[in-house]
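Handoff note, outgoing to incoming analyst
You'll be picking up this chain. Sequence as last confirmed:
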Amino acid sequence: MNMGKLSRVLLRVLAALAVLAAFVALDWYPTVKDLGLLRRQRGDLERKIREYAIMAARFNFPDEAETSLLTQADGELRRALPLVENDDAWMASARAELLKREKGLANLILVFGKAEGFGPGRPGLTAWLRLQGQEIRQSFEAAEPWRRYLWHGVFPMDPAAGERLASRPLGIALEAPLPVLFDFINRVSWGAARLEIVRLRLEPAGESARAWLVCGGSYLVTEPSPWRVKMEHGEGDEELLIDRDSPLLLRKVDPLLAPRVEKKELPAAPPVRGGTAGSPW
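Most recent structure output, in case you need it:
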């Protein structure tokens, strides 16, 4: 065999190998890749099914003792809130409790129930509050229960008892030396009025500092109240609300009633040209 014929044979062999390599890269390799992906997905689904089955087998609903403890906890939560006849009674009680607790600052503290109701107080503090009027009004609106109430579902309610959950904003202002002012702010939520700071403004004033706070207080009221907290899921809903961003945790689920996940078979591989169906080789 001369060199010319050998060269032509080698060229034909190389051309055939190139065509075969292109065929493998364009036809067989994507099929094998898809099959591998499907096998991994099937493995993940089978693993999740096994884990869910183990979790469902280990889950136990509360027994009588646990139910009794939960009922006692609900009662303690209800007793933790002040019970008043109407909204004005809660406002007066919260003001009196705050001033009684802060005896050394009672003459310096200004408590108001609405943005325009600053009332008599130290001239400098009252004038500063009037300058802050617009921001204070916005803070009062932000503290209204129909706009902002983070404790939906936390406090269990019994409509038959005639108690209604309400939340009303309360404004507090004070001018004092900075360390004293910080101590007061840290103690605001300690009282029985269950005050929660919604917004705080602090500014220096010479050797002292001025601050106003808008707080929201939760309480139980026996009379109809415009500050009543609307329940998100309707009256009498006793579902436990854990996190608004976790919809799977909002409802009680019976694992025995949950639909079973059926295993999915891998689809048949497409026929491969030049070979048997379902085989990449």
